């Protein structure tokens, strides 16, 4: 047969094979599309309960608080729309600035918890006999409730029979003095917060690859340079969590203040969270209390967004 005839005869066969291949590819794409849709529907079904819970218990209360802050309401009578009057009154309240100042003091001193927790975690991250018992002793304050911690430190500070009197030699009215009350409560709050940060760092320290540490030592790093350039970069997730949760804990501090001083003496130890509770429960000013809650929420939101942007920028 002539070569030209042979090429012409093979051309239809090749085109038929290509059409069959295109048909198989089209059928595979058609079967893939329903599978992708089913997977997407399954993912949404799994996410739906969490989204509903988040909407009901997070988004709805936030929106309700913002709306309520625009009203004057005592919880029983009809709501009266007052616009931004609650915020204007808040800005002219002396107690608000005292509470805001105390929140700043809480924030600054509470940030001592992550570095101290890191130091304890580095000390406890050793394979020494009996270290598990030592870890449990260090961690035990974290499992106590805030009420128990408040009562323990109230007895510790008591100027008539407390251990502080035994150590110092004379009674000091820590919780009864405007100058010392806030610092005494913060010291009590740091007692369980430091073990919490320590646990976060311990969890991440156990996940560090020992070969990275060994490589740093082979390069001549040791002590502080090894910690700063090799260990701490591996602990960024723990640092982020401990700082963010510590700041949130400082801004929403309430239970220890309620147990130890009740915001006193003369509102000197109150913070925004307790000021909000005080206005709602004692004076039935729910709109004014909601305005305080919105201000506190905005402060937390600004800090959390700032920390998230820093973390995302560092990961690029």
Automatic annotation (TrEMBL):
CDD domains: TM_PBP2 (cd06261). One of its GO terms (cellular component) is plasma membrane. Residues 1-32 are annotated as: Disordered. Residues 1-12 have a biased composition (Polar residues). Keywords: Cell membrane, Membrane, Transmembrane, Transmembrane helix, Transport. The chain crosses the membrane at residues 42-63, 104-124, 136-157, 180-202, 240-266, 286-306. It is a multi-pass membrane protein. One of its GO terms (biological process) is transmembrane transport. PROSITE patterns: ABC_TM1 (PS50928). Its main location: membrane. It comes from the Bacteria. It is found in: Cell membrane. InterPro entries: MetI-like, MetI-like_sf, UgpAE/MalFG_permease. Pfam families: BPD_transp_1 (PF00528). Residues 99-307 form the ABC transmembrane type-1 domain. Belongs to the binding-protein-dependent transport system permease family. PANTHER family: BLL4140 PROTEIN (PTHR43227). This is Sugar ABC transporter permease. It comes from Trinickia violacea.
């Amino acid at each position: 047969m002539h070569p030209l005839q042979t090429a012409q005869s093979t051309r239809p066969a090749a085109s038929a094979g290509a059409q069959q291949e295109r048909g198989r590819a089209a059928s595979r794409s058609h079967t893939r599309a329903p599978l992708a849709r089913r997977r997407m529907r399954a993912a949404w079904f799994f996410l739906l309960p969490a989204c509903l819970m988040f909407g009901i218990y997070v988004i709805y209360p936030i929106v309700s608080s913002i709306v309520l802050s625009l009203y004057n309401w005592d919880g029983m009578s009809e709501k009266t729309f007052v616009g931004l009057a609650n915020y204007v009154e808040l800005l002219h309240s002396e107690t608000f600035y005292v509470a805001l100042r105390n929140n700043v003091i809480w924030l600054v001193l509470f940030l001592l918890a992550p570095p101290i927790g890191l130091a304890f975690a580095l000390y406890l991250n050793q394979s020494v006999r009996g270290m598990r018992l030592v870890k449990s002793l260090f961690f035990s304050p974290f499992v106590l409730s805030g009420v128990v911690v408040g009562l323990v430190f109230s007895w510790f500070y008591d100027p008539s029979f407390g251990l502080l009197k035994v150590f110092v030699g004379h009674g000091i009215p820590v919780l009864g003095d405007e100058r010392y009350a806030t610092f005494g409560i913060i010291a009590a709050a740091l007692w369980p917060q430091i073990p919490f940060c320590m646990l976060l760092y311990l969890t991440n320290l156990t996940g560090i690859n020992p070969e990275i540490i060994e490589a740093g030592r082979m390069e001549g790093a040791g002590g502080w340079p090894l910690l700063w350039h090799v260990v701490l970069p591996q602990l960024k997730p723990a640092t982020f969590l401990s700082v963010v949760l510590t700041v949130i804990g400082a801004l929403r501090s309430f239970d220890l203040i309620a147990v130890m001083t009740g915001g006193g003496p003369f509102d000197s130890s109150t913070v925004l969270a307790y000021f909000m509770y005080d206005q709602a429960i004692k004076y039935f000013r729910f709109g004014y209390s909601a305005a305080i809650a919105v201000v506190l929420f905005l402060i937390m939101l600004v800090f959390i967004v700032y920390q998230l942007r820093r973390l995302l920028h560092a990961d690029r």
